[in-house]
């Protein structure tokens, strides 16, 4: 109901009704009962002819980042105890780095390419690698060591990509720190 009051269709309907009221006040519409009919008709016409609400396809970056960070936490909790400890450490490290990159969603949204790559790692690559391993029966994964090796290799590649993204993300701060060091090292 609240959305209707602020909608463009309601506003157009109200403008139509106000027009009818002005017509009554100026004497164009005669009797009082006719004014109510004209108001209802003009409101309905305005509401029907008013433009529809604009569709917003862009997701709020802070909401999206919170959802992704929550899903990363859930992934770590789900995988905990079910993965070999060495690969679980890698999952934790990658999830922590991705969460750090998602900590400032407005800044991340300023670089759409970087944002896309971070979200791809957090939403698809990391969960898919862990899920594929976890879908194997435990006895099969334990019997065939190559499944764990494949997971370790995948996590190593994901971790390397995450480090590259972090380097790109924090490049400005690193350059600022270098500039400060140069400035402090200069003789007065």
Automatic annotation (TrEMBL):
The chain crosses the membrane at residues 32-50. Keywords: Membrane, Transmembrane, Transmembrane helix. This is 5-bromo-4-chloroindolyl phosphate hydrolysis protein. The lineage of its organism: Bacteria, Bacillati, Actinomycetota, Actinomycetes, Pseudonocardiales. It comes from the Bacteria.
